[in-house]
Amino acid sequence: MVTGATLRAQHVRSGDLFAALPGARVHGAEFAKEAVSAGAVAILTDRTGAGLLADVDVPVLVHKDPRGVLGSIAAWIYGEPSLRLSVLGVTGTSGKTTTTYMLDAGLRAAGNTTGLVGTVETRIAGERLASAFTTPEAPDLQALFAVMVEKGVTHVPMEVSSHALSLGRVSGTRFSVGAFTNLSQDHLDFHRDMEDYFQAKSLLFDGRSTNEIVNVDGEWGPRLVKADTVTVSAEHDAAWTAEGITSSIDGEQTFTIVGPGVRIPVRLPMPGTFNVANALLAAACLRVAGVEPAAIAKGLGEVQVPGRMERIALGQPFTAVVDYSHKPAAVALALDAIRARTTGRVIVVLGCGGDRDVAKRPLMGKEAAARSDLLIVTDDNPRSEDPADIRKAMVDGALAIAGRGEVREIGDRRAAILAAVAEAKPGDAVVVAGKGHETGQEIAGVVHPFSDRDELSAAIREVTL
Known about the structure:
By secondary structure, the chain is of the alpha/beta class. The protein folds into three domains: 4-64, Udp-n-acetylmuramoylalanyl-d-glutamate--2,6- Diaminopimelate Ligase, Chain: A, domain 1 (3-Layer(aba) Sandwich); 77-302, Mur-like, catalytic domain (UDP-N-acetylmuramoyl-L-alanine:D-glutamate ligase, 3-Layer(aba) Sandwich), CATH 3.40.1190; 310-464, Protein-Tyrosine Phosphatase, Chain A, CATH 3.90.190. It has helices at residues 32-37, 47-52, 66-77, 96-109, 138-150, 162-166, 194-202, 273-288, 293-302, 328-340, 360-370, 387-399, 413-423, 452-464, and strands at residues 4-6, 16-19, 42-45, 60-62, 86-91, 115-117, 122-124, 127-129, 155-159, 175-180, 209-215, 230-232, 241-247, 253-259, 262-268, 310-311, 319-323, 346-350, 374-377, 406-409, 429-433, 440-443, 446-449. The strands form six sheets. The protein has a six-stranded mixed sheet with strand order 16-17-21-18-19-20, with helices on both faces. Helix 3 runs parallel beside helix 5. The protein is globular, with a radius of gyration of 23 Å. The model has no long low-confidence stretch (mean pLDDT 96).
C-alpha cells in the first residue's frame, strides 16, 4: 500500500512512492536503490530513469512527464486534501506575500482556522514552520494540506510562484480562488522572456481556480480577464476600486474599498499605492470566500508582514525601513512610497542576488539611484558568484542616471547599513532593501546568519541612541 510520496531519496519513509525525476546534473533514478532500501514501495520515473533501474524489486511507473503528473498522484495518495480546504492562491511578481498575509488576517478576523504557505513561513493553525520554497514541491504540498485538514484548518492563503506553476508543484491542487497581483521583470534566468514568464503565471487561471480575481493595473492583468473574472484596480475603473486615499506621515493609509454592493472603510498600516492594490485584491478574494466587510476591515487594519515596508522605530529622529524589494519595479514602487512621506533625504542600501537574473542588476541600480539621495550598493546573497561583479553591474546602471544622487559601493552589508545610518539626519529615511525577512546571507555556498532587521536596529542603537 502506498501511504506517501517524495522526490528525495533521503526523505523516503516506509510505504512511500519515490519520484525519480531528471535533474540538472543527476537523474533521480540514480538514488532508487537507496529509496527502496529506505522503504519505497513504488517508483515513478521517465524512460531514461527506467533504463537506469536495474534489479529494483518494486513496481516502476513510467511516464513521459513524471514531474507533471506527480502532483495529481500525490493528491490521490493523500486523499485529495485541497478539496477539503478553501485554497486561495496568489500569483504575480510582487505583492504575493503581502496579499496572502492580508487574506490570512481577514480570514482569522472572521473566525476561520487558517494555514499559510509562502516565502516567509508556512503556518498550520498558528504553528509556524520554516519555508524552503515559496511554493513547496508537489508531494510536500499535498502532505502539508493533509496535515492541515487533520489540524482543523479550513482556509489556506498561499503564494503560487511561476516556478511552481511551470514545474507542476501545484498540479493536483484545486483552488477556490486564483488571484493575480502584477507582472514585472524577474526570474529571467528561469524563463526565456517576459512572455514565457507571463504564460507560466497564467497557468493558475487555466481552469484550476473556481474563482479568478485579477489586478488589471498594468499591461499584463487585462490579458487574463474573461467574462466571469473579478477585476480590481487602484488606478481606474474595475469591479473593486478605492476611494479617498489619504496617507499619514508614519505610512498609514485610510481609504474606502468599493466593491459590488459594499463600501468598506479601511485603515491600512502600510504605505504605497501598491499596497492599496494588494488590499483591494485581498478584499475581493475575501468576499468571494464569504468574509463579511467588518472582518475584512479588521483584518486589513491589523495586518503585519515581516520584511515588507517594515518600520524599525527605536526613537531615532529619522525613518528606518526594511523591505524585500529585489526587483526593479518593486524597488521603484517602494522608494516612491518612501519619498512621498520623507521631508529629508532618502538613503538606500541595496544589493542583487547571485546566480539569478543578471539582466535586472543594472536596472536595480538605475531605479534606486533615480529615487535616492545616497545609494550604497552592497552585497545581497552572492551565492557562487564574485560579489564584486554583481556590484559593478549595479553601479554601472546607477551611474547612467542623469541628475542622480551620490553612489557608493560598500561590499560588506553590515558596514553598508552602518554607513547609511551614520549619514542619516532628522527627517531622513534609511531604506535597507532586497532581503526583507531573510535571516541568512549566502556567500560561496555557505549561509551565514544575517538579518537586515537586526543589523539596522543594531546600527541605530550604535549611532543614534
